[in-house]
Amino acid sequence: MLKLSRMLPSSSSRHHLLEVLSSRKAQVGDFTYSTGFSTATNNYAAKGYTSDRVSAPYSIYKGKAAFSLSPCLPTFTKLDSGTVVVDRRGSIMMIFMHAIGERKYDWEKRQRFALSATEVGSLITMGPQDSCEFFHDPSMLSSNAGQVRKSLSIKPHANSNGYFVSLTVVNNLLNTKDSFSVPVTTAEFAVMKTACSFALPHIMGWDRITNQQSGGTVGLQPKLASQVLDLEWEK
Amino acid sequence: MLKLSRMLPSSSSRHHLLEVLSSRKAQVGDFTYSTGFSTATNNYAAKGYTSDRVSAPYSIYKGKAAFSLSPCLPTFTKLDSGTVVVDRRGSIMMIFMHAIGERKYDWEKRQRFALSATEVGSLITMGPQDSCEFFHDPSMLSSNAGQVRKSLSIKPHANSNGYFVSLTVVNNLLNTKDSFSVPVTTAEFAVMKTACSFALPHIMGWDRITNQQSGGTVGLQPKLASQVLDLEWEK
Amino acid sequence: MLKLSRMLPSSSSRHHLLEVLSSRKAQVGDFTYSTGFSTATNNYAAKGYTSDRVSAPYSIYKGKAAFSLSPCLPTFTKLDSGTVVVDRRGSIMMIFMHAIGERKYDWEKRQRFALSATEVGSLITMGPQDSCEFFHDPSMLSSNAGQVRKSLSIKPHANSNGYFVSLTVVNNLLNTKDSFSVPVTTAEFAVMKTACSFALPHIMGWDRITNQQSGGTVGLQPKLASQVLDLEWEK
Amino acid sequence: MLKLSRMLPSSSSRHHLLEVLSSRKAQVGDFTYSTGFSTATNNYAAKGYTSDRVSAPYSIYKGKAAFSLSPCLPTFTKLDSGTVVVDRRGSIMMIFMHAIGERKYDWEKRQRFALSATEVGSLITMGPQDSCEFFHDPSMLSSNAGQVRKSLSIKPHANSNGYFVSLTVVNNLLNTKDSFSVPVTTAEFAVMKTACSFALPHIMGWDRITNQQSGGTVGLQPKLASQVLDLEWEK
User: Fold this and answer.
1) Does the keyword field hold Ion transport (chains A, B, C, D) (predicted)?
2) Which of B216, C66, C140, D41 is most exposed, with minimal Cβ within 10 Å?
């Protein structure tokens, strides 16, 4: 533990890597929600380890609970027409855990909340006095609609110096209610906002569009391109 | 429909993917305005599907109408001198559709409005009380100048909690007038601003410049480079 | 001219591409200051046209004068130790031209002003009431020091709705004084700020650092890496 | 010196490259803290010099002292499960030096301070009146805990026009105390904030996640992907 701790230039004893906890060590391999659906045979393999699942959550560990944020990219599918469209939407995955001892958190009873692009939009525009709340029903439109309810709230501290980030999960099927509340400093929230702003175009899939053409069609058919009238006016 | 809906962690019944609509399904292949001019033989093909047209619009579906945003990259052409210059300017393409039923939108009668870099500049600096309006004439400088007029306006809600995004198209050639108005929440507008800020350097083509040299000329001719005086003072 | 003009969805007759002007056409090849020192044999050539010089200035054409902005990347050199260091600093190159007729600008008598990273820092933090001024002496530290003086000023309009961007060049060697002043709208300035913020890490060379390791050292020597103590505490 | 100086379009005699100093020249090779652990055999080598250590610090040289900022990327390690996790955290490395003469700084007695992601979050949200202070103990959790104390403070100038950036290092083992204080202009601080905001997702390792999937798994198994239910609801 010593060795790892020395790698963490942290000014506060409250900040510790999940990996520090010996009880968690074996489960780090499970901590791969962010890229759980990537395959081992993708085309970037030749460039090194980029074909592997990468786990780099931003984690905030506090006395009673912890949560982490990690971008979860969209998946795409190719239509018969050759067009690639979004299959599953991207999100920022939040994972909450209860503290179960000194620097120990309960990975088994973790709860998830996936922020959509628009919910990320709410988060990144919050001012110091603003609050927001999101409601998710994982069984929406199924026969179990309304049986599980999740709500995430972000509320400012009384002194405007940070926020409380809280998740409540009510599961009527299991007859359980689970709550987490994590105080977040202004600095930690700034990291969340900057990282989420960075990730937003990626979870929307826009990076796929902007990367695509930039090495591609340049001048291959300049004549044809010249003949293209403004797209706006076409049907 | 059930399966797809469960993939959408949405807190509101108003948000639905275009793909959910069975009547739209067959037309998703047409929904490729953003990359309609990329070719199938570009040099990124070896890296996977990046050679295909990618469609990842940010869509806002409301009761009476919907619109989507998608970056439309510039095209380039190579001059005899070897310099690559912008051929057709990039834009953020907006597509508006009328609602024609429960979660159904009329793709056939869609209208387009392509935001230029400077118009994107207006959008991303709007404060909660600001409004803006853009006028386009697709036939500008042709014999039909003034026959078709498009205006896009973005106006704040009375309570400063979001905006109305409206498009009006007056076509004197067809003797038609078409109007769309879509209420946009603060969170949705934040996504629009962040995504447009991300896309702006790409629609300007600046990503081509910054990507170019960064893996390129480094130290190939250090001596020559050292002799280069400050570019500013050269003619 | 018609064809090109129809490609420009511009709401104002003041915005026109340099390429529209027939008198400029032949000189577009000269308009390559931004990447004038890239070589034709760089390693990206296999990816398409990225080895060529790319010109994609953001240009603001007004009645009496015009200017354009374009990122000018740093060059690097490799030391005997194997470390790559910055050789010539990056900048945002501004080029000013006088109007010499309807939509014609005088490329021959253009003047340049290269914004350093810190000057870009001034520009991107300007509020609507702020102004700034930069002074350059191209002959600084030579025997001609003080003979040529360039000053760039950015001053807000009286109504806070945009800025005047002005360049003055006093050349005592040639006994000349040249002045340009271009009114810039709030939207145009927003494009300048967003594009310059995007370009800033690139002209600093930080993109070279962040791109480098991200496909590189991952896990090649996990044991060794684990033994590395915090860099901060090393000498 | 003349030649190099002419490459610096600086408006102030206070800004000078480290490389200008002949006494530093031979030590530039040591100035590679930012990428000191990259290997010479990484997979990007074929693309040019990107396999080499790149040094591109943002340096602020003032009369009594100087400091530089440079991103220090995280290192990763691959678990047996195939998942790649962060091994050593990334940071923004600050290096302080005392002035020891006209444009000369003492590289031998430099002191380091590595800003964590959360400390970067503090820096990038600072308003013109805000201040912050960070404390590091390099020997934290070892038998030498408390023997060396480093504190970095950023405090606004009395006139709100910039900041003082100060580092104090108290070493009880060597019985020394070392202090540096560097005045920073608003423009220089804007560069620091913009560059740190750019670097933040990279030092968190999020760029590894967003780069990964974007050329990868697209549509390789569209059927399988379609069957994947929302990650949020899975255990």
Assistant:
1) no
2) D41
